[in-house]
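The pair is listed for reference:
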Amino acid sequence: MKVSHPTISIIIAVFNMQDRLAAAIESVLKQTYAHWELLILDGGSTDDTVGVIKKYEQHLAFWQSEKDKGHIDACNKALPKTRGEWICLLNADDILLPDSLEKIARTSQNHPACQVITGGVIIKKWQDNRIVSVKTYTHPKDLGLTLSNVLLKMPFINARFFHKTLFAKYGNFCAINDAGQYYISNDREYLSRLALLDISSVIISDPVYEYHAHDGSLTFSNKHRLQIHREHCALATRLLGNPSLTVGDRKLISRWQTKETLLSAFFLLKKQPLFASQLLLGEIKSHPLQCIFQFFRLVAVKCCDKLAFLPNEMR
């Protein structure tokens, strides 16, 4: 019997990452699994990112450099150009672990009906060109494609490999938010869509993806915290408009919305105290018990030593 070897398409969307891109590309070239293709879409970088891409041109199935509407817009542009059965989004400042693709391919062969495969994650925090902390997530309770994980924990979209048919059936990633800005929380938006559907998902407990947290990282940076919290509030409102939500899902989303509203108000207190007060009072009036619970939870987390490591979404 002939064994099928699925092709895995890796998409790297990049902008001004001349110092980090090569490591991401090399992590693909060093894979123990041979059936892959690599596509790189540069957003019109002004540094030598294109020069780095050209050095690896012979290994690429496709690449281009042109202005786009952000990282996820570039990923959407790449999707129609992929030929693989599975799609992986690799950040230009992260890496795939050496045998990641082999594990994904083997899992897809063992579970032919599977639509999403999620692998374990390593997060390395960098400061002054050295690693200051390492966190590993391999437990199924952290990796499962559940609404609770997607909204309340790290979504880990880069460690999730998507069967290409999902995009044809459920649409691409959302690149622009309700305010017309680049949608930073596109990962939670897309994964929440899948989590509410009957998607066949399998978990690999071994690490397959390594995030690099640094000051220039959009995923882990503090620069866009207010926008992220506002996007979360808007996403919660949209999700709550779904009449088919279960009671449990509705409570979970409502609790998440309260937390994100409180965080938005706290960030606005200095610059827009009146608007922040209105947000707080409105939320307290609507969900008094949730506000009390979330307030004390946020205070407790703020006092926790682990906070310095956690990305913004988990604070």
Strands lie at 8-14, 36-42, 62-65, 86-89, 95-96, 116-127, 130-137, 160-163, 201-213. The two ends are 51 Å apart (CA to CA).
